[in-house]
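Researcher: Structure for this, please.
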Amino acid sequence: MEKQIQIAAKLYECREAARLLLGDSYSVRMAEYGQIVNCVAEGKSLGILEAATEIAKDPALNGYEKIQVLASAVELIEPGA
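Model: Predicted structure, token format:
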């Protein structure tokens, strides 16, 4: 259970970092990445977090892009929270 809490905290940190860095374009970017996460989740029969984690493992993505992918997963699960 403690590990799950730690993971959740990191995901919320990703969302806050993305909000800070993206500013006014946050909503648009989260919608874009959210569509990608949803497509992967549906295509591979994965949950949202599993799909986002799989996408974030892609070595072609830089750290900033990985943060956005994980933040979009949080937004899909808890929009606007």
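Researcher: Any notable elements?
Model: Residues 2-22 form the longest helix (21 residues). Residues 2-77 form one domain.
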